[in-house]
Design goal:
Elements lengths: L8 H14 L20 H17 L3 E2 L2 H21 L4 H6 L3 E5 L6 E4 L3 E5 H5 L4 H16 L2 H7 L6 H13 L4 H7 L3 H9 L4 H17 L5 H14 L8 H5 L4 H14 L9 H14 L3 H12 L8 H17 L3 H15 L3 H17 L4 H4 L8 H13 L3 H14 L4 H13 L3 H14 L3 H18 L5 H24 L1
Parallel strand pairs: 2-4
Antiparallel strand pairs: 1-2, 3-4
Helix pairs in contact: 1-8, 2-8, 3-6, 6-11, 6-12, 11-14, 12-14, 15-17, 16-17, 17-18, 17-19, 18-19, 19-21, 21-22, 21-23, 22-23, 23-24, 24-25, 24-26, 25-26
Length: about 500
């Protein structure tokens, strides 16, 4: 299990240390989530613990909700989940109760992790080093297998006498301190805390099991098993270098010779030994991850320089697409729309013959135009499609163009099907506010907080909505007011559960 590097340390560590000093280790009482008394934490308790940790990650400045990258990762992730179900690795109990969500972090470190309750984290730095979608799938399949095999709860059950809030605090501390050893030492100064910290790393047996099952899940999902081997090769090469904090994945997933040899033998048995086919879309998504994870001016300028140099003349289309995409996006970030449009045009011509890559080029051009104040290209996107990037970008453009009435119906349909999409809820809130529908706008704001598991903030917005409804009296929207009252009761119940678990 690898850990988020998270700048959460800047604000979370002082509060956590104060909490640890102020409170003695209490005996576990009935109000805390029930832990497995002999083996595993039960799935309900594990889900609640995972939600507590995910709440902090949502609040962390490292968290990023980029619709384009999120869609790409989800397109890789969903076949893995389906394969795990068909293989019987994903039981109906944890399938229903766990979140099965991948959160993206914008740091450049090479890192991924699994958390209690089916939450996974993926840093953009890890995407940056992948050459194919199969390599990325291998990492996600491995982390998924840690969850389906209940490795997390099995480790936590070894510390079953600890209160769940303390276990969650130690995990958050480890996430916060993964690039700060001094902070980590402070976090684990106590004997019990040190014991929990030492349990966070999976055992070698669990790593081998995650390799074996992850390999089977990945291949059944249709990915090339060679991705597992080539990813292992990259990490092995990195492990030979001095680890300066860039590769926390290697500290919790050591690349042993035994593990690498086993994956190579499994690949040979799978009988699919062929060279990776260049994937223009993956190359473009890697380029996007690199720009978003390296937003400094010097880094952005380096991407532009690379694309404008002569070294790309003899490069293959995949490398050219990656360089042009990065340079166009970087130019937009540097407030140079003219150069961004020129580079985006060259990219569009390069990938015009491949529909999937051409779609990404179109999205990038619309994004660049919107950033420069021209909403027309993004507003022309088909928000009625099933693709989230078109919906989000198109809705942003229509709102900027004063067309809020065009936005709200499609967003209403979307959030009904995807209630965890906080960004869509926020856009819907803005659309309602622009149309003077204050009550609906406030409820949408509350639902955005629910999607990020911040039930206290959600309750504050629901109460504000109830105040607006009371003041409106007989002239108000009684159907909407009734929905708000129902949702407020449901969220208040969730908030009470959170309070009891602390």
């Amino acid at each position: 299990m690898t850990l988020w590097n998270a700048p959460v340390a800047r604000w979370f560590l002082p509060a956590l240390l104060a909490l640890a000093c102020a409170l003695p280790a209490p005996p576990v009482r009935a109000q805390l989530p029930t832990l497995g008394d002999t083996s595993d934490m039960n799935s309900s308790a594990e889900r609640k613990l995972g939600e507590r940790i995910a709440l902090e990650l949502y609040h962390d400045p490292d968290y990023i909700d980029d619709p384009v990258l999120d869609e790409y990762v989800q397109d890789i992730w969903k076949p893995l989940l389906d394969a795990a179900r068909s293989r019987g690795e994903l039981t109906s109990e944890i399938d229903d109760r766990f979140a099965w969500q991948v959160l993206l972090g914008k740091d450049r470190i090479i890192n991924a992790f699994a958390l209690p309750g089916g939450w996974l984290g993926l840093q953009l730095g890890l995407i940056n080093i992948t050459a194919t979608r199969d390599e990325l799938a291998s990492v996600l399949a491995h982390e998924l297998s840690h969850v389906t095999q209940r490795h997390i709860s099995r480790l936590m059950s070894q510390q079953s006498r600890q209160a769940p809030w303390m276990i969650g605090a130690m995990i958050l501390g480890a996430l916060a301190a993964s690039k700060n050893p001094d902070a980590a030492n402070a976090m684990v100064a106590g004997g019990q805390a040190l014991a929990i910290q030492n349990q966070l790393n999976f055992s070698r047996d669990m790593e081998r099991e995650a390799d074996r099952i992850g390999f089977g899940v990945m291949t059944q999902a249709g990915y090339d098993p060679q991705g597992f081997v080539t990813m292992f090769d990259k990490l092995q090469q990195a492990s030979r270098l001095n680890d300066n904090g860039t590769f926390p994945y290697l500290r919790t997933h050591p690349m042993t010779t035994e593990r690498i040899a086993e994956m190579q033998s499994r690949q040979q048995l799978a009988g699919r030994l062929h060279a990776a086919v260049p994937d223009l879309v993956h190359a473009m998504m890697v380029a996007r991850a690199r720009v978003l994870s390296n937003p400094g001016v010097d880094g952005l300028r380096s991407y532009v320089t690379e694309a404008e140099g002569g070294q790309l003349a003899g490069a293959d289309r995949s490398r050219q697409a990656s360089a042009l995409y990065a340079a166009a996006l970087a130019s937009s970030k540097l407030r140079d729309p003219g150069n961004a449009n020129r580079l985006a045009g060259k990219l569009a011509a390069l990938v015009a013959s491949e529909p999937r890559a051409s779609r990404q080029s179109t999205l990038l051009a619309a994004e660049i135009a919107l950033e420069a104040g021209n909403a027309a290209p993004a507003a022309a996107l088909d928000t009625a499609s099933s693709h989230r990037p078109e919906l989000i970008l198109g809705s942003q453009a229509r709102l900027k163009s004063g067309r809020a009435a065009d936005v709200s119906p499609r967003l209403q349909t979307w959030v009904a099907l995807h209630p965890r999409d906080a960004q869509a809820w926020q856009l819907l809130a803005a659309a309602y506010a622009a149309q003077g529908q204050t009550l609906r706008a406030i409820r949408a704001e509350a639902e955005a907080q629910v999607a990020h598991l911040d039930y206290q903030a959600a309750m504050d917005r629901f109460r504000a909505a109830q105040d607006v409804a009371r003041k409106a009296g007989a002239k108000g929207d009684h159907i909407e007011a009734s929905i708000i009252d129902t949702r407020a009761r449901q969220v208040e119940s969730l908030l009470r559960e959170q309070a009891l678990e602390r």
